[in-house]
Amino acid sequence: MMMSINAKKHIKTGLMRLSALILLLSSQFVLAAPANIDSLRFWTAPDHTRLVFGTSSPVEHKIFMLANPARLVIDIEDSGFKADIPAFSSNHALIDRVRHGKRNKGGLRVVLDLKQTIKPKSFLLKPNSQYGHRLVVDLFPKKQIVIAETPKSNSANKNTPPKVVKSTKAESTKKKWVVAIDAGHGGEDPGAKGHRGTKEKEVVLSIAKKLAQQINQRDDMKAVLIRSGDYYVGLRQRMEKARQARADLFISIHADAFKDQRARGSSVYVLSNRGASSEAARWLAKGENETDLVGGVSLDDKSDVLASVLLDLSQNATKDSSASIAGHVLSNLKSVGHTHKRKVQHAGFIVLKSPDIPSILVETAFISNKNEETKLRDPKHQTKIARAILKGVNSYFSGQAPSSATLAQVQTYKIKKGDTLSTIAQRYQVSMRSIKKANAMKSSTIRSGQVIRIPS
Ligand SMILES: [Zn+2]
Q: Are residues 421 and 306 in the same domain?
C-alpha cells in the first residue's frame, strides 16, 4: 500500500509521540518502584528508644498503636523488607521483638511487640554524607520521665586510695557548682570520623565521662552528663537538660575534622554576638515559654518588654562568664598539646545559646589528624584533656561562691512609684554603687516600671 508523504510524516510523529509517552511512563514507573528497607538500627536512650529504617527512597508511612498486648504498627507503602532485624536484649525496656509482613498492593507492615504502652513519633530524614533516606520512629514510654543522669563518683572504687574529706556538717550541705557536660553527637549521629575509623561520638563520650568522674571527686562541684550512652539528644534538648539540672556551666565536648590532615590542636568556642542576638529574638518568640526561664523568671507571665530586659541582663552576664571560662580552659589545654587557635573562638553553635547558663564548646583535637586521632583514642590522653578542662573551670570558679554566680537565680526588682536608688539599696543591703554597676547606670535616676538587677 502506498502512502502519501504527508501520511508517512503523520505516522512518524505519532510513533515519536508514542515512544515519548512510553519513556515518560517508564520513568514514572522507576520513580514509583517499591522502596526497600535496607537497614534497621536502634539506639536506646534513658528516655526513649529510636528506630532508624534505612530506605532506598523516601517512603510514605503511617504509624498507630494497638492495645492488649501493646504493639506499634508501622505501615509503609510500596516497600520490601531487606534488612537484618537487630537483636533486642531480653531486658530492653520497651521492645520485645520486631516482625514484618506483606500487605495488599505491595505494602509492608512492620509490627513492634512492646513491653509497655508508648507514645510514638515518626519522621523522615533526607540523605546526608553518612546515610541515605531514613524513616525514624521514636518510642517514648508513657510513664517515666528521665532528667539528665548524674554519674556516680568513682571515689568509692577500691583501687583508688580513700580521699581525705573534711566532713563538717556545713560542708556536706554546701551548694555545689553544677557542671553540665555535653558529649557531642551520639547514636545515629557519629560526628566526625578518623582515618582509623575512630568515631567522634565515642571519644568525646569517653572524655566527658572522665571529666564527670574527676568533677564528682571534688566536694565543691557536681557533674551532670547530658548524654551517658550511645544515643542522640537534640541540640535544644541538650540546653534544656542543662537547665533542668540547674547547671552553672555547660561544656560541650567535640573533636574537630578538616580536609587538610595537617590541621591539629584544640580550640575553645563561645557564642558569637550574631548568634546571641538572633537567639534573643527566638527566646522571646512564643512556643518555648513553658520552660523559658531567664534569670529565674518564667517569660510567659511577663510582658515582652520586661522579658527582653531580663534576657539582656542575663545574656550579658552569661557572655562575660562564658568568655572568661573559655579563656581559662584554653590556657590549660595548652599544657596538654597543641592549640589550633591562640584565642577563644566565636561561633553560632546552637548548644551555646542558653541565655542564662555560661556555655563553652571544646574541640579537643583533630580526629582527622592521624597523630591526634591516636591520642584521642588513648584513655591516658583522654584523662589529661579532662584534667585540663577541669583546671580551667576550677580557676574560674575559685573565689566565687556558687550561689553568687548562679545566673538562673539572678534577682531583679521592678521599680515602683516613690522608690529611690538608696531605699532599694537599703532594702537589699547592697551599695548604690553596686546596683549602678550591675545595671550599667550612669546616674541614680530611676523610673517607675523599670526593671533592675540586684547584685548579690
Ligand atoms: Zn562535633
A: no
Calpha distance 270→346 (Å, rounded): 5
Report CA(394)–ligand 1 centroid distance (Å): 24
CB-count burial class (<10 Å; 0-12, 13-18, 19+) for 407: buried
In sequence order, the 6+-apart residues with CB closer than 8 A to the CB of 81 are 36, 37, 100, 108, 110
Q: What is the pLDDT of residue 341?
A: 84
Residue 43 belongs to domain with CATH number: 2.60.40.3500
If you measure from the C-alpha of residue 257 to the centroid of ligand 1, how many angstroms do you get, rounded to a whole number?
8
Ligand 1 centroid, distance to 369 Cα (angstroms):
15
Query: What pTM was computed for the model?
Result: 0.69
pLDDT in tens, 48-102: 899 999 999 999 999 999 999 999 999 999 999 999 999 889 999 999 999 999 9
Same domain, 342 and 221: yes
Residue 314: band (very low, low, confident or very high) from pLDDT cuts 50, 70, 90: low
Residues 193 and 227 occupy one common structural domain:
yes
Distance 129 CA to ligand 1 centre (A): 15
Cα 185 to ligand 1 centroid, rounded to whole Å: 6
